[in-house]
Amino acid sequence: MKGRPNIHQDEELVRKAQQLFWERGYSATSLSDLSKATGAGAGSLYNTFKGGKKELFRRSLQQRREALHAFERDVENSDNPVALLKAFFLGIADADTEAHLRGCIVANTVVEMTFVDRELEAEAMQLLQDTEALYTTIIRDAQKKGTIKSRQPADVLGKYLITFWCGINSLRRIYPDRDILKQQIALQLQMID
Fold first, then answer.
1. For residue 14, what are the contacts with CB-CB under 8 A and spacing of at least 6?
2. Between the chain's N and C termini, which has fewer beta carbons within 10 Å?
3. pLDDT, tens digit (0-9, with 9 covering 90-100), for 98-110
């Protein structure tokens, strides 16, 4: 890849870098690794991402935020947001072993960046908190409609789902087995029946 990449190429660079960060984490990924994975020279990466590796990592997290926004749009267009939410969690079990071993780049970042980089930790935490807010809204609306019978406050259940999300991303590494994961996910989702 010669010269400065265009916007489409920038997005592709971020996707390739994200895969590497997702597998190795921020600290264990070198500029040389990123250059090899993206096919862009170190100079080209620095010209494109002025903040270097950290900016490229931030852009990787931003792509996860964009995925959250896409899910929000799906929720807005859904006749049954709770079923959509449950399907999302149950779908985790169907991922391949590699995806299970990677877990969640956002949850991984919170753990990795604690005591290392407060800014990156805060960005990842904010993304999880924004996800929690979406879950809370879905639950609150369903409780008002009577489609969720749980009397737990919606914000408590929203936090519960984020706790579950972080936990399932560890469990799937221990048991990357579809049947075990489906069973455990279904059990946890009973909280929002």
1. 56, 59, 60, 62, 63
2. C
3. 999 999 999 999 9
